[in-house]
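Question thread 4412

I'm putting together a teaching handout and wanted feedback from people who do this every day. The idea is simple: show students a protein as raw sequence, then show them the structure tokens that encode its fold, then repeat with a second protein so they can compare. Below is the first pair exactly as I plan to print it.
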Amino acid sequence: MKIVIVRHAEPDYLNDTLTEKGWKEAKLLSKRLCKIENPVFYCSPLGRAKDTASLTLKETGKTAQELDWLHEFKGKVRKGLKVTSCWDRLPREWTKDLRYYSNEQWLETGLMKSLNVKKEYEKVCRGIDELLKQHGYEHKGNVYRVNNSNHDTIVLFCHFAVESVILSHIFSCSPMVLWHNFVALPSSVTTLVTEERENGTAVFRCLQYGDISHLYAGNEPASFAARFCECYDDDTRH
């Protein structure tokens, strides 16, 4: 089976919708996704994800099931008196502590234990496991038991931080590296496919991560949203 994870198009965060550019991105994305054979669509409850999905759903005549755990990741941490997201940390806050690179230990750091990160992480992990089990693949340790081998394609319209959580769970790795060393730009497509090289057992492999070839095909430049300054002195987002 295939998992296609789509990040929403360029967001208007203030109004939880898309910018004018974002709607252009979503239109180009829809022309790409409508070519998928017999997809099953799932969507975050947030407006920017639903707006992104809407053009593909209109193009295909399908509907999407809304899943609360596809909401942008809700994990928060407390540092002093300030409460912020767990997934936007400066390098000095985590890169020297090797526990952040461990799938088993990153949640045991003081910062991650300060509020609700473990609870929210486990919620997303349960969500993706339940969904994949419905489609025939049951998470067992670091692999999947094949209960129903198939060529299903599920498409998840969601957000960068929760996408990274999903990938970290499927690949048994810390999401810290995905949050901070990878970036899925707006409207990007990440595709995973099962490999069943041993009877009854499957693993997922990534065929493409953060692909925006649909934007190139439409002569639409990539959005800078989700990125930060390339050089410290740049007059761009810090």
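The second pair follows. I'd like the answer to focus on this one:
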Amino acid sequence: MYSEERQDKIEQYILKNDSASVQELSSLFSVSEVTIRKDLEELQKGNRIIRTHGGAMIKYSNSAQFYFQDLKVKCPFEKKIIARKAMEYICDGDVILLDGSTTTNELAIAIAASSLKDLTIVTTSLSVAMLFSDKEHFPIYLIGGSLNKKMNTLCGAYAEQQIASYSVDKAFIGINGVDPYFGFSASELSEVAMKNAIFRSCSQCFIMADHTKFDKRYFLKVFDLSDKICRLITDDRPDLISYEEYESRIPLVRVKTH
């Protein structure tokens, strides 16, 4: 295979998977890691991918728009294991708040199938609320407001006011980008406002983000990594991400994928 053809296929693989390590690309294309590194350098020079610690990630726009159905099919295994880990922080009798991210949706699925008792759930998500429509032992409070049709969530000033009237034990939210210096970020003002309202309403905040969200900064900051009540739960990919800067700024829970 000529280098140009291999580089095209590497780019397609990264586009499909959001990121890839040098090791997995070396194994996939049966060439040395040195060759893969050269390929990635060429792709980065062509502005086709972004080089990362140990690999590469998809080229992205910091003002990108996100849709629930598109996000739902990305990293489904990683989202499930992150959700399973998040379950360990939920106790009987808790009042929890769930936003409308796809990873939070996986957490809601796990909660609905669990033996948890006396759990009260507040949510901004139509999808999450429907998961509990036949679960009489889980009181559900659905936040009202303007419908964000891209994510099937409620947002806006009225929704923010409602959230401000609640005091919840634990909030679980997803995020678009995580950067050790810029912090947590998103590309829509309505999402930033809602996540900030959720953050202020809870005693503990758990951010759930798979590895593809790391080393990315979007247009709008949500809040800093240094906020003390946060805990960041992610899948463990040391082949792609250098975690030292993150771990110096926020409690980081890394879940093994195998």
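Top answer:
Good format. For the second protein you could add a caption like this: The chain has a mean pLDDT of 91. The first helix runs from residue 3 to 17.
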